[in-house]
Amino acid sequence: TRVLLTGGSGFIAAHTLDILLKHGHSVVTTVRTQEKADKIKADYKDAAAKGNLDFAIVPDIAQEGAFDKAVVSDPPFEAVVHTASPFHFNVTDVKKDLLDPAVIGTTGILKSIKKSAPSVKRVVITSSFAALVNPSKGNWPGHEYSEEDWNPITLEEAHENAASGYRASKTFAEKAAWDFLEKEKPNFTVATINPPLVFGPIIHAIDNLDSLNTSNQRIAAAAQGKWKDEIAATGVYLWVDVRNVAEAHVAAFEKPEAANKRFFTVAGYFTNRDIVDIIGKNFPQYKELPSASTPGGDYPKGGIEKGLYKYNNKRTIDVLGLKYKSLEESIVDAVKSFQPKGL
Ligand code: NDP
């Protein structure tokens, strides 16, 4: 299949690209600069030489019409996988830094496809657990999160802080996609992938750990001794490995039955203390890890059974065929991948 992948320089997108090429798809990926394209190309020389990997430069997805050129290709695209969206909390202006690239990025690519790429049959969009979760309910014992849930966040709440801004950006962007489908009745169907915290090895280019992607930062922080005196609060207790998330993005267009569905890709529960314990067990060289008596990083009172929401990932197993990786494999592989970057 001829596929357009947006944001190819990112953590999740790099793994998605890897699987796309392994499955024999022919890919154009968008990146912001030629330099980023060259770095990816160096990792996939054979695919590039065969014409199975090419690049389109899209410097800012928040600009109207940003994807007008990128959606046009010869041979024409049959599928689009849209992952590009800001995930960080260094925010000065929630609208400009988070909401606009997420929402305009999503509606923009859908408009460009409708206008100029009628051969596209499926658009897979990286949404998030952020678009399902209801933060006002806290740990919500008794509730089971599934694809039925929607974050009720308002535009006003989006501006309260960077975390709310991020969750709102994902919620509004996904809503905008489903609204587009309903109002514009395009030729394509949509599938969204809604992962919670994504952990695992990095295969995208970063110079050093200062530019590590947001969801992996806590793993590096633990190994770097930053939690020696107190383990940071876990916050979201659900996680998934990046390789499963990437697989889900590819299966979501390879499988016709994924049409017009959301997919809550979640592997299981974790706490920050579990991350510490896994690092301690597998990497004795990190000497500044918290100990069993260090405070913080535990499950809420009542534990998983009585103190925390449930989750339902059945659809991702039944429709996408996912086999979830274990937390230990994910954390160990993540740490190994950080070591050449200075861990
Ligand atoms: P990364 O930060 O590694 O990837 C984000 C990607 O989006 C990068 O390629 C980045 O390009 C690109 N991007 C951001 N803003 C713009 C912009 N204005 N114009 C062009 N490109 C832009 O993080 P992830 O891989 O984790 O995130 C990928 C997707 O997954 C996002 O949609 C995120 O919301 C979603 N997600 C991630 C989760 C996680 O735990 N990691 C959980 C749930 C969802 P550049 O690097 O050049 O800035």
TrEMBL record:
Residues 3-262 form the NAD-dependent epimerase/dehydratase domain. One of its GO terms (molecular function) is oxidoreductase activity, acting on the CH-OH group of donors, NAD or NADP as acceptor. Keywords: Oxidoreductase. The keyword Oxidoreductase applies. InterPro entries: Epimerase_deHydtase (IPR001509), NAD(P)-bd_dom_sf (IPR036291), NAD(P)_dehydrat-like (IPR050425). Belongs to the NAD(P)-dependent epimerase/dehydratase family. Dihydroflavonol-4-reductase subfamily. This is NAD(P)-binding protein. It comes from Lentithecium fluviatile CBS 122367.
